[in-house]
Design a protein that fits this description.
Layout (H helix, E strand, L loop, with lengths): L17 H9 L3 H23 L5 H8 L3 H26 L4 H19 L7 H27 L4 H12 L1 H20 L9 H15 L21 H9 L2 H33 L6 H34 L5 H23 L4 H16 L2 H11 L5 H14 L5 H14 L5 H12 L1 H16 L3 H17 L19
Helix pairs in contact: 2-6, 2-7, 2-8, 2-9, 4-6, 4-16, 4-17, 5-6, 5-9, 6-16, 7-12, 7-15, 8-12, 11-12, 11-14, 11-15, 11-16, 11-18, 11-19, 12-14, 13-14, 13-19, 17-18
């Protein structure tokens, strides 16, 4: 890039008449757009409730099937692995076919599989594994496509806030999953009932999807068009994404976030139960209580984190176009010592552990909406579903698809070397969890690297959008003027 040429900041795209373009280009008025945002949020809430509801009853599931930590971690790993393996397929389809239909199919699949899993008996552990794999398949279609619809309804700061609202469903849904699972356990004494509530809510989600969600044109709000001059292949789309430094590095940074949060989300409640067991307090009531408190902390910390991240991003972007990856880096680096404190303090002071969990989750959660926003402004509209899919695959293969199993395997290996006891079960899990703060530091470093590329990649994405708009008479005036960089070969 030639010296002295200043690329636009992420907020510069907002010089467009957002509301006018929103109505004309996407075919959706402001009220419809906000209704759609709420609908997508509610379905995403159900998505994460289903994903973490088993974590709220993990102690009882382990006793019911008489399985070790290794197999216990497999429950989450199988669900997430299925989810991320199918994401590229749905990303490819989401860039080409009716997105409402694809998401509706996904909801039916994951809710049906979750309901089926609630009827397994003590010899049906592997059947439960199969059901969770199918749940992941259904969730892949929704999580890959939903953010791209938000991108087609909002631009600039409105998009940032819409994505922030959408991603609040991650901590709130996860927290409600713990609370719902532990509440049903306390109410019925049977963990199976925890899996039977959300499928009923899935029917309501389908109605909302069918009657309240619009199907905007891809990139319509940015004066893009669904009608491309040529059809690109899956490999061409992938090649474009693999050469986009900001996208790839932020995806690896997101993997560090999901690895760390995956450990905390899946093993956190059980770790607190084992810490309590050191005082001789292991009972169903204690397990349910810890899961409820953990869920409430997750909800509150997540809401604050995403709100703080959105506000900070909006204000700092005006001063520094590298603000987004820098915020993500700072969040991970600050979270690391709190994660370490949780691990070391749990058996000494449960209150101190809860405080550290709250602060750790809050700084980790600042990343969620910002990472998605980075993707949407460094990737061209016609490849955003594919980009969501690739990012999901990277962040989960290297993140929460592997981390629960890795921690369980380490814990199980440590237990085999020592005589079985309550103290050994706690200590083995404690030592295993020490991986998480180390990964958080690595993730922070990757986001610092991302900051070096963010301006250039966003500039090229804006240039592409402007070039397409210039080919459509009457629309070119609605886009900001993008300075063309001088490329040195």
């Amino acid at each position: 890039m030639a010296s002295g040429t200043q690329p636009p900041s992420p907020s510069s795209a907002g010089n467009v008449d957002t509301e006018a373009v929103n109505v004309q280009a996407s075919g959706s008025d402001r009220v419809t757009s906000y209704i759609a945002m709420v609908v997508l949020f509610l379905i995403n809430l159900l998505n994460y409730m289903d994903r973490y509801i088993i974590a709220g009853v993990l102690n009882e599931v382990q006793k019911y099937f008489s399985i070790n930590d290794n197999l216990l971690g497999l429950l989450q790993t199988v669900l997430t692995s299925s989810y991320m393996m199918l994401a590229p397929l749905f990303g490819y389809l989401g860039d080409r076919y009716n997105r409402k239909i694809l998401m509706g199919i996904g909801i039916v699949i994951w809710c049906s599989a979750m309901l089926a899993g609630s009827f397994v008996n003590q010899s049906g552990f592997w059947l439960l594994i199969l059901c969770l794999a199918i749940v992941g398949l259904g969730q892949a279609s929704y999580s890959t496509i939903a953010p791209t619809i938000i991108a087609d309804l909002f631009v600039d700061s409105k998009r940032t806030w819409a994505l922030s609202f959408f991603y609040i469903a991650i901590p709130v849904g996860s927290g409600l999953g713990y609370i719902l699972g532990s509440s049903m356990l306390a109410l019925t004494g049977d963990w199976h009932w925890a899996l039977r509530v959300t499928p009923c809510l899935g029917a309501l989600a389908m109605l909302l999807l069918m009657f309240l969600l619009p199907n905007p044109s891809r990139g319509g709000v940015e004066n893009h068009t669904d009608s491309l001059p040529f059809r690109t292949s899956w490999w061409q789309d992938l090649k474009y994404l693999l050469t986009n430094w900001s996208f790839m590095l932020s995806s690896f940074g997101a993997a560090a976030v999901t690895f760390t949060t995956g450990i905390l989300a899946f093993w956190g409640p059980l770790y607190l139960v084992r810490a309590q067991s050191m005082k001789g307090l292991v009972q169903i009531e204690v397990s349910a209580k810890d899961s409820m408190i953990f869920g409430a902390i997750t909800c509150v910390a997540g809401i604050l984190a995403i709100g703080i991240g959105a506000v900070t991003s909006k204000n700092l972007r005006k001063k520094n176009p590298q603000a987004d990856p820098l915020i993500c880096a700072v969040g991970l680096l600050i979270a690391a010592p709190f994660l370490l404190s949780v691990i070391l303090a749990a058996n000494k002071s449960i209150v101190a552990a809860y405080v550290c969990i709250f602060l750790g989750e809050m700084f980790l959660g600042m990343n969620w909406s910002i990472v998605s926003d980075i993707l949407l402004y460094v990737v061209i509209p016609s490849r955003r579903s594919m980009a969501e899919a690739v990012q999901i695959t990277i962040s989960h293969v290297l993140g929460d698809a592997s981390s629960p199993y890795i921690i369980g395997a380490i814990s199980n290996a440590l237990q085999k070397r020592l005589p079985n006891s309550t103290n050994v079960m706690f200590m083995s899990l404690q030592y295993s969890l020490l991986v998480s703060p180390f990964i958080a530091v690595i993730g922070g470093s990757i986001f610092l690297w991302t900051a070096n590329h963010i301006e250039k990649d966003q500039n090229y994405a804006l240039m592409h959008i402007q070039d397409l708009a210039n080919s459509r008479p009457g629309l070119r005036q609605k886009l900001p003027t993008v300075p063309v960089p001088e490329v040195v070969s």
